[in-house]
Amino acid sequence: xxxxxxxxxxxxxxxxxxxxxxxxxxxxxxxxxxxxxxxxxxxxxxxxxxxxxxxxxxxxxxxxxxxxxxxxxxxxxxxxxxxxxxxxxxxxxxxxxxxxxxxxxxxxxxxxxxxxxxxxxxxxxxxxxxxxxxxxxxxxxxxxxxxxxxxxxxxxxxxxxxxxxxxxxxxxxxxxxxxxxxxxxxxxxxxxxxxxxxxxxxxxxxxxxxxxxxxxxxxxxxxxxxxxxxxxx
Amino acid sequence: xxxxxxxxxxxxxxxxxxxxxxxxxxxxxxxxxxxxxxxxxxxxxxxxxxxxxxxxxxxxxxxxxxxxxxxxxxxxxxxxxxxxxxxxxxxxxxxxxxxxxxxxxxxxxxxxxxxxxxxxxxxxxxxxxxxxxxxxxxxxxxxxxxxxxxxxxxxxxxxxxxxxxxxxxxxxxxxxxxxxxxxxxxxxxxxxxxxxxxxxxxxxxxxxxxxxxxxxxxxxxxxxxxxxxxxxxxxxxxxxxxxxxxxxxxxx
Lengths: 233, 252
Fold this sequence. Notes:
The structure holds two protein chains of two kinds. Chain A is an alpha+beta fold. Chain A has three domains: 9-54, CATH 2.40.50.100; 66-142, CATH 2.40.50.140; 147-231, K Homology domain, type 1 (Ribosomal Protein S8, Chain: A, domain 1). Chain A contains six helices and 16 strands. Chain A has helices spanning 93-96, 108-111, 156-160, 165-174, 193-208, 215-231, and strands at 10-11, 16-19, 23-24, 28-31, 34-37, 41-46, 49-54, 66-74, 78-82, 89-92, 117-126, 129-134, 141-142, 147-150, 176-180, 185-190. In chain A, the strands form four sheets. Chain A has a five-stranded mixed beta barrel. In chain A, strands 1-6-7-3 form a four-stranded mixed beta sheet, with no helix packed on it. In chain A, strands 2-5-4 form a three-stranded antiparallel beta sheet, with no helix packed on it. Chain A is flat, with a radius of gyration of 21 Å. Chain B contains four helices and ten strands; from the N terminus they run ββββαβαββαβββα. Chain B has helices spanning 94-107, 134-148, 175-180, 207-251, and strands at 27-31, 39-45, 48-59, 72-79, 119-129, 158-165, 168-171, 183-190, 195-199, 202-203. In chain B, the strands form two sheets. Chain B has a five-stranded mixed beta sheet with strand order 1-2-3-5-4. In chain B, strands 6, 7, 8, 9 and 10 form a five-stranded antiparallel beta sheet that branches. The longest helix of chain B is centred in the last third of the chain and has 45 residues, at 207-251. The chains are: A alpha+beta, B alpha+beta.
């Protein structure tokens, strides 16, 4: 029952990763008792599970995920939302308006128009149906200020860190509000432009170096250095 | 065709372009050459120059082509008007339509089509310069483009041809050998799964010769596979190098 990789090794689709008593994790597949890679990425062994962080991937919706999307079309009873996924999401008008919705009375484009960005949660999704979004929870809805940043969706867990350690540190040190859309879109809202820029640079750095060790320390250092710089003048 | 038959292989067993019977043409592979495509690759296989771009998975357009239970792979193989000696009309010819289908079917087994129903992956293959064996080079490049786009794959697909020239089974035919030779056997192959995804034959071979042709084509595929992996790795290693430089700067 050998494994054929070193920790955090770069592997390519079709590369044999392990044989025998192992479980296929993310971005890997099992065939005839052998585990192969599905994508370009970095492998890791977690107990008996062979896991892989993909370097190139797209977002596949999952019920309960918080995502950030762009309204692309205003329809008769809802909006279509681009969530950077193979599937376009729908947001129903009755979900946004708290009162009963009548197409003749309400002009939907006054509530959300094409081009607006929203934070939403995936309410329903399965193989046969496109995802439905909901904004009926605190913190969800139209985005009015802040900056948007795109990252590879599989890197989002690294930005969050273990039990949210990384993201809470960034939030605290930069005084920014950060919403991580699991589809790889990040919203950063801070009091000043400098704060926002620092947070964005930090997240970009995490995305690029997600596979290197000692990242948390370097990020801590980066945050501290920049803080000093801001305070000096 | 010429009245006087040309000697395609000389007495020493050297072919017209100076190769031995089991030698590949020089290969150059590059990944991520186009920034507007989700994934892309460029291949120079001898005098062949081919670009491949992949998009998706994305919503199918037109929508009625989407399938409820699986992803759809679409391929377009196209030869540029300047890719051959006599200008080729840019409209898709019978041959291009056929090759598009053949390439699609060679790539399909490598994808997890059932994973993303109602979506589509598009692959565009543009032959800039042709010199025999473009379908094989196209498959090799297209597989890289799909992997670069982040679409899950069982394995990279590699393709290589073998054939019979002057009564000898040789690897990787170029244009003249293809036209004047006796047979051409293109093979597409997934090396780590040891599975053939495309096998064609044009011409006449004895069962023995056929077997020999398939075997040397597969050995050629394995050599190209290594180069293919190298090309993919280089792209993602460059990403790593930039990071290391940045790290040094941070430390300074």
